[in-house]
């Protein structure tokens, strides 16, 4: 970096930290910009500078910056001659905005805008040398103001843990207060002359008063009992999280070979939140789709041309270069060549273009618009300058260039600009009447770089796809300057279009336009491309009286029909239009446009109005359909995530038709669903629609009606969500951006949320980045639900930051989303394993680890507390001080860390195959609030056992305090280790090694310490204590019996069992075969993804024999759909599936079956019939009825099992008699579930009829129609 020194009057090298505001800086190609610099000079003849903003937003495409007006005409910039004054806005973090003005010595002002500013962190590209003045430096630059440092998020588990830590503090204070009061009473009971011999007076010969002794004792026991507050828990959790993140990074399944990228964890403190997500908010383009646009369809002049070969190539070549290698349509290519030949003949014979047929004219202009109506930068890898600079230009082109510079970029007055315009128009009047310039040099025929060498730097994949499509038809973009675009055409060579103005795309106008001077006709043409919803309204009105008007209306009608078909196919549509301006129209518009460009205040609004004045009365050329293919595995991922109980909302900026069809393709919406589409033109209409929809949905799916219609059904399950929000309905909600803006107003947001949470799927179309974040915040705050947002572009940053968990995808739209996210993944399909596997593991590990820490510390502190009753609450300890220090630090720390890092309650393949297991994290089944108190009670009980068994063992003996306290410490360590062993689900070599190492380390330290400390702690002495104890059989007896009695409740009471933990006990071969069977059966069910597969109940042969007299019926689909079913789903009324053993199975004493076939027989595989009702949101208990080979002894525990958190949702629906179970052999298996030998279809029809009878006269009557999709307009 070179800094201009006024003393030496030249540029010298300088460090970045020395740069100050007002310094002049000179930069060369490939140098990084050190500060926010106002561009005053460039080696480019047009005053352009190309920069790469990858360090800011991750985008690698080049962007253009322009030298400030009035400095363009300078041959060489001299900093010593700079006398202007710059006034600009205060430093801010808005990267897309910069306003100010520069006051010259003459008093004239020029506006300063973002196009004139080089931002810190960007890199100079394709420009030899630039110079400018520093506007913002250091921490005031926009880049550093955007860097707020790492965002801190607290996980839900951590927040609950902090609350429990406060309870620990309260318990500690109660224990200390109790001890202080006890000590005060103990001191008070002795008279002044009856003090015990060990109670020594103070230096003044007086004894402490009971009150003062209590205060001192209170402070003493706080130090003694301080272990009650698990400070080490926070350190241990951080260590475990770092190790968990490391293993997540090492997962090869989360690596994408195509992009050579892997998962990144950018937030270490919320890994457990991955296992508790309830709502997923996803972008569509680039997140669900590839964001690699392929030109698939186009229609020109009302004729449609298919490019289906490109779609087939995408399948075979896996998206590598298909966006560049486009196969043209033969008929359209033939017409393009025919058009080029006619143009060549007419140019050689100097004939006007009016001789060309209207269809060929539209085809020619259509591809010209595709080529030049964009901001694509053309670069050649072997050239440092833009490849467009290699194109030759004539003298007339120089005239055009100078005109453009005076008319658009210079700071001269409007009058002088119009004077230049009159000269130009006079020159145009001298042209021949045939429409061609007499100077053939205006065509600027030349040869640009070879097509194979060209590289297009586009701001969006859509633009690149259109430019590559035009190149496939031999209409190639070969060069671009600020005022010129060079296009190479067949038979015509290179045509240079003079670019007069570029009206960029914005989200309000939803289009972009370029104003160019046509090199063949010298006409001023406006080429516009944009959304069909706005272009169609800007077309020139056509009269039905004249044939031309009828023809144009016919073309518009055909084009609109083709656009609708493109949207149905899920294609991204664009309309291409053109307008020819007369000299008077352009002169009038130019005057107002220059005033808008020169304005300093309200410049954006004035430019917006100026664009509206010229973008009207357009002539429709055609339309395009670009395909953005779904990423691999997206439908399967969405299906599995929904089975896991996750609600998925898609928030996209695409048009409604395209978004809906992509939603069907990715199985977010199902064809058997009823779709509610909300399109409102005003807030009042939106309020009425929301109210009507809520009344309809509530009346159709109210719990009261469902219960009454169910009649005497005895089988039912508690839903995952509260009864007031029945999410189980098969409804989908589609809402556009305007209606969403109304629905998010404070007066309507509650109604919108009430309707949305009753729908299985929500699709928000035409939504802005702000609306996306507002939707996420609404669900997060109102429903108190765990939210996850995933996106890939800058427009997704706001919702990623608002969500509890933000996930970014490194795609085609840059790295903004990744840099703002907590986790970054290469593909959407990786979200499945990240949540269902790693999220489940992280939550399960940390939840159990936190509870174990609370238990361990409370249990150890309670031992010291019980001793206070026998030492006058003096704060003494029967445990050696070194044992107190090392107990948490060395003896018991390693095993819990190993378990927290490596424990797997369910294998990964089971979690993927049975996604319903994820609901345990959503329901916080591993760490509920009452579990803290259960652990505290368990710790108190175990401490009583570990204290009083040694107490009564050594009662009335002559052992010293350490000879009695050391066995208590040993027993406590054994009990804590065995407790951890019970809680550990997966045992590895490290688990065994850590436990054995901890025990051996304790004995080693005890033996060495007791043997080397003969004079410690007088009058008591730990010398040779452990050596004597190890020779005493009573020591071994107490160390064995005490942990067994302490852990007896955990031996006798079943831990809650899940299907995954049951399957994990199978041999790897049997488990693989069983899971393969599950996958095969699911893949053969074409309709299985529209509801939770295998959501059925099973009955084994033994159970059917027990219950033939009184079979248990299953709960039917009792809720009638809100609207009529889609015709496509009629063939799926009934379906036969193979019931898979997806229930928790308690095996008897016999060993597991040795083969998959015997396992299949034992678990009761049989064919069942069921309806296609939507039931996938039911809890795990409904999806997988628990089963058991229960003998007489085990049956007494059924009530306890049903009261555990996992089984509490099953309810009281399983009525099994004790006598029937006692008659079953132990080697059989009984599946506790409901029989499905009930005609589901008949029950559904009966319930539907009941519902229809009950619904008469309700507000839902207006909802009845024959369409599966009802649109409220």
TrEMBL record:
Catalytic residues as annotated in Swiss-Prot or TrEMBL: 283 (4-aspartylphosphate intermediate)
Bilayer disposition of the protein: Multi-pass membrane protein
EC number, as in UniProt: 7.6.2.1
Every P-type ATPase C-terminal domain range: 818-1053
Subcellular location: Cell membrane; Endoplasmic reticulum membrane; Membrane
Stated role: Catalytic component of P4-ATPase flippase complex, which catalyzes the hydrolysis of ATP coupled to the transport of phosphatidylcholine (PC) from the outer to the inner leaflet of the plasma membrane. Initiates inward plasma membrane bending and recruitment of Bin/amphiphysin/Rvs (BAR) domain-containing proteins involved in membrane tubulation and cell trafficking. Facilitates ITGB1/beta1 integrin endocytosis, delaying cell adhesion and cell spreading on extracellular matrix. Has low flippase activity toward glucosylceramide (GlcCer).
Family to which this protein belongs: Belongs to the cation transport ATPase (P-type) (TC 3.A.3) family. Type IV subfamily.
Protein name (database record): Phospholipid-transporting ATPase
Naturally occurring in which organism (per UniProt): Accipiter nisus (Eurasian sparrowhawk)
């Amino acid at each position: 970096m070179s800094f201009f020194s006024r003393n030496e009057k030249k540029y010298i090298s300088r460090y970045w930290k020395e740069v100050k505001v007002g310094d002049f800086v000179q930069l060369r190609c490939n140098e990084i910009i050190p500060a926010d610099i106002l561009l005053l000079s460039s080696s480019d003849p047009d005053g352009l500078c190309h920069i790469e903003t990858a360090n800011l937003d991750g985008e690698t495409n080049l962007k253009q910056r322009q030298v400030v007006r009035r400095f363009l005409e300078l041959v060489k910039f001299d900093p010593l001659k700079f006398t202007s004054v710059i006034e600009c806005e205060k430093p801010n973090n808005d990267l897309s905005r910069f306003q100010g003005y520069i006051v010259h010595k003459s008093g004239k002002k020029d506006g300063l805008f973002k196009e004139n500013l080089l931002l810190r962190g960007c890199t100079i590209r394709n420009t030899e040398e630039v110079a400018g003045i520093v506007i913002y430096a250091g921490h005031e630059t926009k880049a550093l103001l955007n860097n707020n440092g790492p965002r801190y998020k607290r996980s839900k588990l951590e927040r609950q843990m902090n609350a429990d830590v406060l309870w620990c503090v309260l318990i500690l204070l109660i224990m200390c207060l109790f001890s202080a009061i006890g000590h005060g009473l103990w001191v008070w009971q002795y008279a002044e002359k009856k003090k015990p011999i060990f109670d020594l007076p103070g230096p003044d010969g007086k004894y402490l008063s009971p009150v003062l002794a209590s205060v001192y004792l209170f402070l003493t026991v706080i130090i003694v009992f301080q272990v009650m507050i698990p400070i080490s828990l926070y350190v241990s959790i951080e260590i475990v999280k770092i190790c968990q993140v490391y293993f997540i990074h090492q997962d090869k399944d989360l690596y994408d070979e195509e992009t050579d990228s892997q998962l990144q964890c950018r937030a270490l403190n919320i890994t457990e939140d991955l296992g508790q997500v309830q709502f997923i908010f996803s972008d569509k383009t680039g997140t669900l789709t590839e964001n690699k646009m392929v030109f698939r369809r186009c229609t020109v002049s009302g004729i449609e041309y298919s490019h289906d070969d490109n779609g087939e190539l995408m399948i075979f070549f896996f998206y590598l270069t298909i966006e560049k290698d486009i196969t043209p349509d033969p008929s359209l290519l033939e017409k393009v060549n025919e058009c080029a030949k006619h143009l060549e003949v007419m140019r050689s014979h100097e004939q006007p273009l009016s001789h060309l047929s209207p269809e060929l004219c539209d085809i020619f202009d259509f591809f010209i618009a595709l080529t030049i109506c964009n901001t694509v930068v053309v670069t050649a890898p072997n050239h440092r300058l833009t490849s467009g600079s290699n194109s030759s230009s004539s003298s007339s082109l120089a005239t055009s260039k100078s005109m453009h510079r005076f008319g658009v970029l210079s700071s001269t007055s409007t009058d002088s600009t119009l004077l230049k315009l009159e000269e130009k128009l006079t020159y145009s009047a001298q042209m021949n009447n045939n429409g061609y310039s007499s100077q053939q040099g205006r065509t600027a025929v030349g040869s640009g770089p070879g097509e194979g060498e060209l590289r297009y730097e586009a701001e969006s994949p859509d633009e690149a796809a259109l430019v590559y499509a035009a190149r496939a038809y031999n209409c190639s973009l070969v060069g671009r300057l600020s005022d010129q675009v060079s296009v190479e055409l067949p038979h015509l060579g290179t045509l240079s279009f003079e670019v007069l103005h570029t009206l960029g795309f914005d989200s309000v106008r939803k289009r972009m336009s370029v104003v160019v001077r046509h090199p063949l006709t010298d006409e001023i043409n406006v080429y516009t491309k944009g959304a069909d919803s706005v272009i169609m309204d800007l077309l020139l009105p056509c009269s039905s009286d004249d044939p031309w008007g009828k023809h144009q209306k016919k073309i518009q009608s055909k084009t609109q029909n083709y656009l609708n078909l493109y949207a149905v196919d899920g294609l991204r549509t664009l309309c291409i239009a053109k307008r020819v301006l007369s000299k008077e129209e352009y002169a009038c518009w130019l005057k107002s446009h220059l005033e808008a460009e020169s304005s300093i205040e309200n410049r954006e609004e004035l430019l917006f109005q100026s664009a509206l004045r010229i973008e009207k009365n357009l002539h429709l050329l055609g339309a395009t359909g670009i395909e953005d293919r779904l990423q691999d595995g997206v439908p399967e991922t969405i299906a599995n995530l929904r089975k896991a109980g996750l609600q998925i909302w898609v928030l996209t900026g695409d048009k409604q038709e395209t978004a809906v069809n992509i939603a069907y393709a990715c199985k977010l919406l199902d064809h058997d669903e009823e779709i509610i589409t909300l399109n409102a033109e005003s807030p009042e209409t939106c309020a009425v629609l929301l109210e009507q929809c809520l009344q309809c949905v509530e009346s159709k799916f109210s719990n009261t009606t469902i219960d009454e219609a169910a009649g005497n059904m005895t089988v039912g399950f508690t839903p995952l969500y509260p009864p007031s929000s029945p999410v189980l309905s098969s409804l989908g909600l589609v809402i556009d951006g305007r209606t969403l803006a109304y629905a998010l107003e404070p007066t309507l947001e509650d109604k919108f949320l009430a309707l949305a949470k009753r729908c299985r799927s929500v699709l928000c179309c035409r939504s802005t980045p702000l609306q996306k974040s507002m939707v996420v915040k609404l669900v997060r705050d109102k429903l108190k639900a765990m939210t996850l947002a995933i996106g890939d572009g800058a427009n997704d940053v706001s919702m990623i930051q608002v969500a509890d968990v933000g996930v970014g995808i490194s795609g085609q739209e840059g790295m903004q989303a990744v840099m703002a996210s907590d986790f970054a993944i290469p593909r959407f399909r990786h979200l499945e394993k990240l949540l269902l596997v790693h999220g489940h593991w992280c939550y399960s590990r940390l939840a159990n680890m936190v509870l174990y820490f609370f238990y361990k510390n409370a249990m150890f502190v309670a031992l010291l507390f019980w001793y206070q009753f026998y030492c006058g609450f003096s704060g003494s300890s029967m445990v050696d001080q070194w044992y107190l220090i090392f107990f948490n630090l060395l003896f018991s720390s390693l095993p819990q860390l190993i378990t927290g890092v490596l424990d797997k309650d369910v294998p990964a393949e089971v979690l993927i195959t049975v996604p319903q297991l994820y609901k345990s994290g959503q329901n916080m089944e591993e760490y509920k609030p009452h579990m803290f108190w259960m652990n505290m009670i368990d710790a108190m009980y175990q401490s009583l056992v570990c204290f009083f068994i040694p107490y009564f063992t050594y009662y009335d003996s002559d052992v010293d305090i350490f000879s009695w306290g050391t066995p208590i410490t040993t027993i406590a360590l054994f009990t804590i280790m065995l407790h951890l062993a019970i809680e550990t689900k997966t045992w590895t070599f490290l688990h065994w090694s850590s436990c054995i190492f901890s025990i051996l380390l304790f004995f080693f330290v005890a033996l060495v310490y007791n043997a080397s400390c003969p004079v410690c702690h007088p009058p008591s002495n730990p010398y040779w204590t452990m050596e004597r104890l190890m020779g005493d059989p009573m020591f071994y007896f107490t160390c064995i019996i005490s942990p067994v009695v302490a852990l007896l409740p955990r031996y006798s009471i079943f831990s809650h069992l899940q299907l995954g933990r049951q399957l994990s006990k199978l041999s790897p071969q049997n488990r693989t075969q069983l899971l393969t069977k599950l996958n095969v059966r699911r893949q053969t069910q074409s309709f299985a993804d529209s509801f939770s597969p295998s959501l059925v109940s099973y009955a084994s042969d033994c159970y059917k024999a027990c219950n033939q007299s009184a079979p248990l019926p299953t709960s039917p689909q009792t809720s009638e759909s809100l609207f009529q079913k889609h015709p496509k789903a009629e063939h799926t009324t009934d379906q036969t599936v193979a019931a898979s053993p997806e229930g928790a199975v308690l095996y008897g004493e016999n060993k597991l079956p040795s083969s998959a076939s015997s396992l299949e027989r034992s678990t009761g595989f049989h064919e069942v019939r069921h309806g296609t009702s939507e039931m996938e949101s039911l809890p795990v208990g409904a999806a997988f009825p628990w089963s058991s080979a229960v003998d007489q002894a085990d049956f007494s525990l059924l009530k306890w099992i049903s009261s555990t958190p996992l089984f509490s949702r099953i309810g009281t629906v399983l009525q099994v008699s004790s006598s029937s179970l006692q008659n079953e052999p132990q080697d059989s298996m009984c599946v506790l579930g409901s029989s499905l030998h009930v005609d589901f279809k008949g029950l559904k029809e009966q319930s539907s009829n009941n519902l229809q009878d009950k619904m008469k006269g309700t507000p839902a009557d207006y909802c009845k129609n024959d369409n599966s999709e009802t649109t409220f307009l």
